[in-house]
Design a protein that fits this description.
With 383 residues, this protein is α/β, with parallel strands linked by helices. The chain contains 14 helices and ten strands. The strands form two sheets. An eight-stranded parallel β-barrel has the order 3-4-5-6-7-8-9-10, surrounded by five helices. β9 (245-248), α8 and β10 (267-270) form a beta-alpha-beta unit. α12 crosses α13 (346-359) and α13 packs antiparallel against α14.
Length: 383
């Protein structure tokens, strides 16, 4: 069987889907790396909502996807930008997501860390930003999850310089009950975060970021760097205090960063591990044996798909992630909160399907093919 797919030039090409998925089975816990997948939310397709309405979430399907990730040994990074925080999922929805997912994690013994931000306010003074962070930190800690202090749009707008970041993050770290993960999300993921840490100069911003950590190393489990700049991540990683981990958030260069070098390596907290979950888990288990080449042989071929999904405008990568979850059978529909399923083009979807199919990511290749053909027919492409 073949399928006709549109290319970027508008012409149709013929593709022959694979017939068997990659053989992957759940295995033992990881021993060499700590690995989180930032997970997407599944929208309720029958909710009568508009793009401006509060998110309508299918909780059963959303939690089932988290169980899928846990079953392969991955931790879940909850209520992050992959879950459309600030792009369809407001704080009320994120709070409910955190409560439900943390409870589910306890029931199955899964690892979970949850995003702490300030998205209950659109803007405010530094004091108001700090109070917003405190409210969210309290909820995450009460849920029993590890906290991830995310970058704040409101802080980026309110801060007059590095001193505001030092003061607010220092205050939060002092009151945190357990060590947290600090998340530096670059403007390619969210343009409102340009100049974070008090400077548009990345060298100066890096110094401030590291100053925060150096002042409170006992309260920082690790950092997540999402700048899509492998060398900068390596440079930051080498300057971290002993015991503070680097969790790569680089969806362009993750295999080499996780593999590491003679001076260290990165753990992982990645949006691309949402669609790659089982394959990524298998690769990490190979790495656990000391087989770096085998790890790279498994994971390197996935980079082309990741770079495609995260191409500019990078913030719309969630659309491709949810699209692949639908093709893989993890949800019954291709609908997203905020109507974000419209954020990528049909040629983009076609290439994503072809690359994912080539990797063997679909548990049922025939189902994925049928769903891809259904989408194509909606766009007027008859097979």
């Amino acid at each position: 069987m073949t399928i006709r797919l549109p290319g970027a030039d508008g012409a149709l090409r013929t593709y022959e889907p694979r017939t068997e998925p990659l053989a992957v089975t759940p295995g033992t816990p990881f021993t060499s790396r700590t690995v989180f997948s930032a997970a997407h939310v599944v929208a309720d397709p029958f909710a009568d909502v508009s793009p401006d309405s509060p998110a309508a979430v299918d909780w059963d399907a959303t939690l089932a996807f988290r169980r899928h990730l846990w079953s392969h040994g991955l931790g879940v990074a909850e209520a992050m930008d992959t879950a459309q925080r600030g792009m369809g999922l407001d704080w009320a929805g994120a709070a409910e997501l955190i409560r439900r997912s943390a409870a589910e994690a306890r029931s199955v013994g899964g690892r979970i860390a949850c995003g702490v931000g300030t998205d209950q306010i659109a803007s405010g003074s530094p004091a108001e930003v700090r109070a917003a962070y405190e409210e969210q930190l309290a909820l995450v800690e009460e849920s029993g999850a590890q906290a991830i202090l995310m970058a704040s749009r409101a802080l980026a707008a309110a801060a007059s310089g590095p001193e505001d970041y030092l003061e607010i993050y220092g205050h939060l770290l002092r009151q945190a009950a357990e060590p947290v993960v600090l998340h530096w999300l670059g403007p390619m993921f969210d343009p409102a975060l340009a100049g974070y840490w008090g400077s548009a100069d990345l060298e100066a911003a890096t110094d401030t970021f590291l100053d925060v950590i150096a002042a409170h190393p006992d309260k920082v489990d690790g950092i997540k760097v999402s700048l899509l700049d492998a060398q900068r991540e390596i440079d930051i990683r080498r300057r971290l205090p002993q015991g503070v981990r680097c969790y790569t958030g680089d969806d362009f260069n993750y295999p080499e960063l996780i593999a590491g070098d003679e001076q260290g390596f990165s753990h992982a907290l990645l949006g691309i591990f949402d669609p790659l979950g089982p394959l990524a888990a298998q690769a990490v288990r190979v790495l656990d044996t000391g087989n770096v080449r085998g790890f790279r042989d498994l994971l390197d071929p996935t980079v082309e798909l990741s770079r495609h999904l995260f191409q500019t405008p990078t913030r719309f990568y969630k659309t491709g992630v949810v699209f692949l979850a639908w093709l893989a059978g993890h949800q019954s529909h291709f609908t997203m909160v905020g109507g974000l399923q419209s954020a990528r083009s049909l040629p983009h979807f076609a290439t994503a399907y072809e690359l994912a199919d080539g990797l063997g990511l679909f548990p049922d290749p025939k189902l994925a093919e049928e769903r891809m053909k259904t989408l194509l027919s909606v766009y007027g492409v008859n097979q």
